[in-house]
Amino acid sequence: MDLGITGKWALVCAASKGLGKGCAQALARDGVNLVITARGDDVLQATAAELRLLNPAVQVIAVAGDITTAEGRAAALAACPQVDILINNAGGPPPGDFRDWDREAWIKALDANMLTPIEMIKAVVDGMAERGFGRIVNITSAAVKAPIDILGLSNGARSGLTGFVAGLARQPRLASRNVTINGLLPGPFDTDRLRGTMVGAAQKTGQPIEALLDARRKLNPTQRFGTADEFGAACAFLCSVHAGYMTGQNILLDGGAYSGTF
Fold it and tell me: What angle do CA 17, 19, 24 make, to 5 degrees?
């Protein structure tokens, strides 16, 4: 399928690895020029080189920095000739017990997973509307639909973003101008984030990480974890010309783990 976005510019946050990298790869395959961001410059530059090899016809600009800071956002936005596609993504806050979280922990989670995406949206959405095309995809979490008790910081911050976007995406001045804002809600994907969570579980239980990962796989109806390539393909479709009538939606990619009807 021709996604109709060849030559567009996308800004992909936290794109050096994991789900962000999967999104950048899918967009590059479809001819989208990229500005990619992440905090670690070495890994980011390696990813940029991979993307250029994947599709030599696209431009790839790598901007190392912390997207959760004003300076990091400004640098990423300044590097992009125009933002036709925005993929908001940032690592989730650590698991734990809410009794141990002070105000600083909450503010850090909100900054990363709610306020930063909102600031990025604010920076690009009016330009998208003026040009008559815009695609914004927020990578959140399946926990927005089915909260996970030890991920309370993530549950709260990402749900706040989801509620905000539900109103913004439906504003006629955006939706009528072919600007869409949607959420992609990953379940268990084979990423460093998942393995990092399992390290903590292994330390608590004394079980090997691979045994815990295998048990986690078996809990999913598919009996496996998702891949970054699968996630990226779904993201690319939401960014395509074919998804112009889909806005304000939250798409679960969880292998059927969420058992609710709605």
Answer: 75
Asked if residues 225 and 194 have their Cβ atoms less than 8 Å apart, the reply is yes
Residue listed under structure tokens 């509307």:
129
β-strand partners of 180:
135
Q: Which residue's structure tokens are 């930063």?
A: 116
Residue 163 is encoded by which pair of tokens?
Answer: 């509620």
Distance CA(43)–CA(28), nearest Å, equals 18
Place of tokens 């749900």: 159
| Alpha-carbon distance values, 71 to 68, 156, 250 (Å) | 9, 25, 29
Residue with tokens 């295998």: 214
SS3 sequence of 196-231: HHHHHHHHHHCCCHHHHHHHHHHHCCCCCCECHHHH
Distance CA 236, CA 243 (A): 10
Closest CA to 7 of 32, 25, 43, 28: 32
Q: Bridge-partner residues for 182, per DSSP?
A: 137
DSSP-based three-state secondary structure for 6? coil
Beta carbons within 8 Å of 100's beta carbon, 6+ residues apart: none
The answer to whether the CB of 27 falls within 8 A of the CB of 85 is yes
Amino acid identity for residue 49 in this structure: A
Q: What are phi and psi of 83, to 5 degrees?
A: -100, 100
pLDDT tens-digit series, residues 184-225: 999 999 888 777 777 777 787 888 888 888 898 999 999 999
pTM for the whole structure: 0.94
Helix (H) or strand (E) holding 192: helix 192-205
* Stretch (H or E) spanning 132: none
